[in-house]
Amino acid sequence: WTFTLVRTERGHEAFAAALAAGVIETRPLEDEPRGMMLLEVLIAVMVFSIGILGIVGLQAASIRHVNDAQYRGEAIFLANALVSQMWADDHTATNPTYLDATYGDSGSGSGYVAFKEMVRRLPGTELSGNAPAIKVAPGPTPTSSVVTVTVFWQLPGEPTAHNFSTSAVIGRNP
Question: Is the whole-model pTM more than 0.70?
Answer without folding.
Answer: no
